[in-house]
Amino acid sequence: MVGGYDYANSQFDRASEARRQPGSAFKPFVYMAALEQGRRPDSVRNDAPIKIGNWTPENYKGKYYGPVTLSEALARSLNSVAAQLAMEAGPKSIVELAHRMGIESDLKANASIALGTSEVTPLELTAAYLPLPPAATDPRSISSSGSPRLQARCFTSMTGRA
Known about the structure:
Layout: H1 27-36, E1 44-47, E2 66-69, H2 70-76, H3 79-89, H4 91-101, H5 122-129, H6 134-137, H7 152-159
Helix pairs in contact: 1-3, 1-4
């Protein structure tokens, strides 16, 4: 591995040893768990403020879009929809899927897993992304105007279903 500021001063390997919350980078695992249980890219959820116990996940800048497809919700990285899906699919099934995809860290099976609150290393998160189709990880999936172009084909590639 290459990296770090000064190897003579610190041999800490930030790629394989540093643990960080992945945040929204964890959302594809939430959506895949929901898709495995029968949801579809064109399934609709209401993007609106929600409360799960004492937790109130909010979207970036407090903006909500109302009824959205799962494809659009993932492309826009909508926190409220990710939290809804985590509760529908079950946090435990999300942890199990993430482990199958290559995450090795101990993940907490709770509602906030939808927003990537369990710590992982950069290396294991990167490795877990390898099976994802290019459309799911392509930053060009969102146009410069902000309108989503993420196609259902990435979900089809993930699940084998249209």
